[in-house]
Design brief:
This protein has 299 residues and is α+β, with helices and mostly antiparallel strands. Helices cover 20% and strands 36% of the residues. The chain contains seven helices and 18 strands.
């Protein structure tokens, strides 16, 4: 059993809980996820099964989209509604002021990872230290906010949509926005609506996955690895004479790439002459030639 499931994670479960649940349902230990969601969050959680687990690394740079609710005037120690309230302030902010502050956060920004996160410090996860009452210095990280859109504002709750890069903490974004507004804020609800090619409109609930497995239709919920990768990678059909080079890991020239690489780190889905999926290759230029070298084999 190999493939990818666009899973709809429910609130109240960790991402690892979902993986454990599906390992039991699918009857295999080779299950992984892409893009961790906090226990209180819901939404798109790609699940990789069998050989598809090799593809997780290629989704780590994917664009993400969330619909989030932020509550103004209340700050917590975790940055969300799961934590202890630290401060409460009156908030008389208007929609125009919120939109103005949103615009200031669009682009590349610096974020300090929250203490209640899985980021490691000297071998320990930050949330493990936080539960012991330990706070350590964290280095800011560069993330990118592509867009922020105000959906609805009913004081003190702000509903908005945000599109961002990997590594962005929406909790931290809410705290920073609240700070900029002068009243503080915390994340009160979060739904991930998109991660790369995976959209919430096509996500499958755990109940539906369980029903598909019980009825012997588990293959119907699995998307093929190459089909998913092809949504954001070029495709290459290699010549028979180059197959040995591919499997040996040596580079070789190609001509029939679906789209020319626009940078030195582009990947491509590789097929043989019979259009059998072989793996992922790294595409790069050398002079006027376009070359490929195996990055990951899926046979």
């Amino acid at each position: 059993m190999n493939g990818v499931i666009n899973c709809l994670k429910p609130p109240g479960m960790t991402s690892h809980d979902v993986v454990d649940f599906l390992r039991k349902q699918l009857g295999t230990k080779k299950v992984g996820h892409g893009g961790t969601l906090d226990p209180g969050a819901a939404g798109v959680l790609p699940i990789f099964v069998g050989k598809a687990t090799k593809a997780v690394e290629f989704f780590e740079v994917s664009e993400k989209e969330y619909v989030a609710e932020m509550t103004l005037g209340v700050t917590t120690d975790t940055g969300d509604n799961m934590g202890k309230v630290l401060e409460t302030k009156d908030c008389n902010t208007e929609s125009a002021s919120i939109i103005e502050v949103f615009n200031k956060f669009v682009g590349k920004i610096q974020q300090i990872p929250p203490m209640y996160s899985a980021v490691r410090h000297k071998g320990k996860k930050l949330y493990e230290l936080a539960r012991q009452g330990i706070v350590v210095e964290r280095k800011p990280r560069t993330v990118e906010i592509y867009s922020i859109e105000l959906i609805k504002y009913e004081k003190p709750r702000v509903l908005f949509r945000v599109s961002c890069s990997r590594g962005t903490y929406i909790r931290t974004l809410c705290e920073d926005i609240g700070r900029a507004l002068g009243c503080g804020a915390h994340l009160s609800c979060l739904i991930r609506t998109k991660l790369g090619p995976f959209k919430i409109s096509h996500a499958i609930t755990l109940e539906d996955i369980k029903a598909s497995v019980s009825s012997g239709k588990s293959q119907e919920i699995l998307m093929s690895i190459d089909k998913i990768l092809s949504t954001f990678m070029s495709s290459v059909i290699i010549q028979l004479r180059n197959e040995k080079s591919f499997f040996k890991g040596t580079e070789f020239p190609i001509e029939n790439i679906s789209t020319e690489p626009d940078n030195e780190n582009q990947y491509a889905v590789i097929y043989d002459q019979k259009k059998q999926f072989l793996g992922v290759g790294k595409i790069f230029y050398r002079g006027l030639n376009i070359l490929v070298k195996v990055q990951k084999s899926f046979l």
